[in-house]
Structures are given as C-alpha cells and as structure tokens.
Amino acid sequence: MVKIALNLTAEVENIVELYTSPEYEWNLKLRCTSCNEADDKWHAINPDEEVQGKGGPGSFNFQMKCKFCSNVSTIDIVKDSIRHITAKENGMIENQTIAVFDCRGVEPVAFDPQSDWIAKSEGGYTFESVDFGDDENGDAWFGYDDLAKVSVSVADLKGSFERV
Ligand SMILES: [Zn+2]
Fold first, then answer.
1. By the number of CB atoms within 10 A of the CB, which of 11, 39, 92, 113 ranks highest?
2. For residue 104, how far is its CA from the centre of ligand 1 (angstroms)?
3. Could you give the 3-state DSSP secondary structure of residue 149?
4. Keyword set for this entry (predicted)?
5. What is the mean pLDDT of each run of 10 residues along the chain (164 residues)?
6. How far is the CA of 29 from the centre of ligand 1 (A)?
7. What's the gap in Å between 72 CA and the centre of ligand 1?
8. Distance from the CA of 82 to the center of ligand 1, in angstroms?
C-alpha cells in the first residue's frame, strides 16, 4: 500500500483558513497501478463510507474494479489526516497537505474540489458552503465579508499528489 498526500495551492484574498465540511467527498480521477491505465471518470471518496472488500477481509472507503485489467483496488482516507489549511500573510496557500489517502492498486491523478468547503475570513467571518463550481469556470470562489466590508476569494485552487 502507498500513502499519497493531496497538497493544495491557491491564492487567497482576506481568507485565513480553508477546510472541508464533515459531509465532504473527495473527487478524484484514478490510475490503475497494475495496468497503468487512467480511468476518465471522477470518483467520490467518502471517509464515512464502508465498502465490504471483495475476496478479502475488511472494509474500505472506496473500492474499484479496473475496467481495463479487472484489478480490484481500494482507497482509504487515513484516519485524522484531514486538516485545515491556513494562508500565509502574502495571501498564498503553498503546497499544503489537506488529506492523505491509503491507496492499494490505484493512484489519484486529478482532484476536483467541487463544493462543501468552509472558509474563514481575516475578519473572523465563517463562510459555509463554499463552492468551487465545475471545471469550466476554473476552481475559484468569490465572496464578500459584510462585517469587514471587504471582498474575499480563493482563486486558482490546485491539487497535487505526493507520496508520503
Ligand atoms: Zn488496470
């Protein structure tokens, strides 16, 4: 098994903290490590999901049978690995780990942040249900902090993967 961290990079305006809601599902594109083929579909990985393993003991957050080579692979989100990420004073989030995935037979190759994020502004306001929208609009979110009377945003949110 291989542990793979999802690292985020973004440019923020008047936002100090970014994290996922308890209902959040991690949307990933996956590559089979047995035949090296990448599946074109997005898969939602839910840390509360328990899928019974095929042909083996235990349960997993996610299980997939490769449509090319039929290899069965699984993913678990490492317990307590989901973190809040904080912006630096220069308004950057630079390659910060937000979650770690325990991958068997498969590796994530793309991440789509989608919705169900929570952002805290510099003025102390909490924005619930931050939505990064679909791919066509780019992964950005714009809001307005009514208390501090400033615009807030998280722009150019990008995920990358790293073996840990
Ligand atoms: Zn395969």
1. 113
2. 12
3. coil
4. Metal-binding, Zinc
5. 95 97 96 96 94 80 95 95 94 96 96 96 94 75 94 95 97
6. 14
7. 8
8. 28
CA distance 72 to 54: 8
Confidence (pLDDT) at 111: 95
Q: For tokens 């009377």, name the residue.
A: 149
Distance between Cα 71 and ligand 1 center (Å): 5
State the distance from the centre of ligand 1 to the C-alpha of 106, rounded, in angstroms: 8
Q: Using an 8 Å Cβ cutoff, are 27 and 16 in contact?
A: no
Query: What pLDDT is recorded for position 137?
Result: 55
Grouping H, G, I as helix, E, B as strand and the rest as coil, residue 148 is: coil
Q: How far is the CA of 40 from the centre of ligand 1 (A)?
A: 13
pTM summary value: 0.93
CA-based max dimension of the chain: 57
